[in-house]
């Protein structure tokens, strides 16, 4: 079972995303355990203070290092360090990708530190976190939503979490291409009908059509992904077809 620990001043934020749908089922099935630990419980002064003024001056408050170190240490005592990863969520971290989700899914324990206020004492990044991760080039009010995003993406990579055996393998970015379009009933909806090939019953033809649509979607929407993509001979032929069709040929 993978163990996930979240270090956050706002534990209640996690009840929604982790209490529904696939993550909920994974937890109930014993594939995943998720605990949230509040650094405030490790601030032992009378008022449980977790932030303070920045050295050197400036606006805003900075999260103190000691409650965060103690909170992390309270959840990492049991496991060897090569089986766990301590991840600081911050906009200055490495970009989160499907590749990173796959890599993190290989650990036994993940600890996510959610920064808040205007900042977090940098000794947490330097001496406590193994790495810092960002979910995109924008700044959120805290690391909670980013941690939820990363946990969700990692959880669905764990064996058994997605019902169908081929679930994650079919995804965009798992293969390196965007997905082909999917349709369900009704066959005709407001005059828009499902592509005939999908009703043909010809599985080889359907597989070829889907591969071609994946390549076409990727070429049109995310051509950057094709730069490093290892095209096989059939892919190359399909791409030629797509390019000919696009130039009206
Ligand atoms: N904290 C605030 N913004 C963030 C981002 N984009 N990614 C990760 N953590 C963050």
Helices and strands in order, then pairings?
Layout: E1 2-7, H1 15-18, H2 21-28, E2 32-37, E3 51-52, E4 62-63, H3 65-76, E5 84-95, H4 98-104, E6 109-114, E7 119-120, H5 123-127, E8 131-134, H6 144-155, E9 188-189, E10 192-193, H7 203-221, H8 223-227, H9 233-246
Parallel strand pairs: 1-2, 1-6, 4-7, 5-6, 5-8
Antiparallel strand pairs: 3-4, 9-10
Helix pairs in contact: 7-9
Bound molecules: adenine.
CATH topology of the largest domain, anyone? Alpha/beta knot
Q: Please identify, by name, the CATH architecture of the largest domain.
A: 3-Layer(aba) Sandwich
Low-confidence stretches: none
Principal-axes shape call: elongated
Order of helices and strands: EHHEEEHEHEEHEHEEHHH
Please give the share of residues in helix: 25-40%
Q: Which structural class should the secondary elements be placed in? A: alpha/beta
Please count the beta strands (DSSP E, at least 2 residues each): 10
Number of helical elements: 9
Average pLDDT, all residues? 95
Strand content: 15-25%
Within CATH, the superfamily of the largest domain carries the name SPOUT methyltransferase, trefoil knot domain
The number of domains is 2
CATH class of the largest domain: Alpha Beta
- Outline the biggest β-sheet: 5 strands, parallel
Ligands and ions found: adenine
Major beta sheet, strand line-up: 2-1-6-5-8
What does the radius of gyration come to? 23 Å
Q: Distance between the terminal alpha carbons, to the nearest Å?
A: 54 Å
